[in-house]
Amino acid sequence: MIVLGSTSEVAQAFVEKALQEGEKFEKIYLFTSNKETTERFARHIDVKFLQQAEVVELDLTKEIDYNRFDNINSNVLFCAVGYLGEGTEEGLYDNKNTERIIEINYSKLVPVMNYFAHKFESRRSGTIIGLSSVAGDRGRQSNFIYGSAKAAFTAYLSGLRNYLFDKKVHVLTIKPGFMATKMTEGLSLNPKLTATPKQAASCIYKAFKKQKDVAYVLPVWSIIMMIIRNIPEFIFKKLKL
């Protein structure tokens, strides 16, 4: 298995869930920009599950040498890459903040995804799981830079799923709502609408095994976002969301 964004609590919870369920991987490739933290997780799954893992350094804000990935092969790719950045009031007109959000969540991530998608296509097998966000379902004033990048990523996954369908490659889009993770630490989140990494991992694993196309981590978010998507624009633009 290839894990992009392997310091994510959701990614690590999914790896553990898959191993607990008896999934077998010749090797798990943990892609990360934080080698020290990821090496600790690699040691953890080695001790707990006797699972071999290799840490692969990847910084999406720097130039990428794809030749380093030539010998990496897998049948599952799990992408949990995400960067929230500064909110609208603090970061809207900070171009460095905007560039970083777009690079990490979309523009530098998609070529990496494509690199491995091509390998999956060549083998005519495998599953690609991408974590997008409900923030991409409609632009809201509170986080529309992040939301727009996630909307682009959702559209990419949709197109990739359509393209790879007859190549026997499954593409699953996951849309988490509020998540209790380091990325959202300090934010005031409704506990009834917030999932833990373990809850998310369980939902994602079920969607993976059922070969779903799109899944919300908490079902209530599909209802919430359906309502938000269907609010008329002349009303929506007046709302403080």
TrEMBL record:
InterPro entries documented for this protein: NAD(P)-bd_dom_sf (IPR036291), SDR_fam (IPR002347)
Keywords: Membrane, Oxidoreductase, Transmembrane, Transmembrane helix
Pfam family, any one: adh_short
Transmembrane segment boundaries: 214-231
Superkingdom to which the source organism belongs: Bacteria
Keyword Cell inner membrane: no
Family: Belongs to the short-chain dehydrogenases/reductases (SDR) family.
Name assigned to this protein: SDR family NAD(P)-dependent oxidoreductase
